[in-house]
Design goal:
alpha+beta, Aspartate Aminotransferase, domain 1, 29% helix
Length: 129
């Protein structure tokens, strides 16, 4: 775990740390080729510069966000925002269904919208895969 993500985790309450540590472990296992870093103040994983998955602490939960999640052929994620993102929210590490999470992570490799170039395209998303 890089020092910036470690510092992010250490600043959280213990239950939120447990959630984030479990998410970090599962995401890193499924996406070993992905770059991970703090982006917009929370941990995010990228494939070829395109944001794929990340998590952040909200007021009453930890939100797991898949940038292209609305296009996954998998249940369990709720639409988020006006583009193609979808989310799951957790208040305890025991709520994380690791089998579902691994399926979502596999989908995140093959189902991608081009968020990397969204500004250049003036808010228009194009599907990459």
């Amino acid at each position: 775990m890089n020092k910036d993500i470690q510092a992010y985790h250490e600043a959280l309450a213990s239950e939120d740390q447990a959630i984030c540590n479990k998410l970090f472990k599962e995401i890193s296992k499924a996406l070993p080729e992905a770059e991970n870093k703090i982006w917009h103040r929370h941990p995010v994983w990228f494939l070829e510069g395109n944001p794929i998955v990340g998590y952040d602490k909200l007021k009453n939960c930890v939100r797991l966000l898949f940038w292209s999640g609305q296009s996954f052929d998998e249940p369990g994620l709720a639409p988020e925002g006006k583009f193609k993102a979808a989310e799951a929210r957790y208040t305890a590490a025991s709520e994380i269904d690791t089998a579902a999470l691994q399926r979502w992570l596999q989908q995140s490799k093959t189902v991608q919208w081009d968020y990397k170039n969204i500004v250049k395209r003036k808010g228009v998303l194009e599907r990459l895969m």
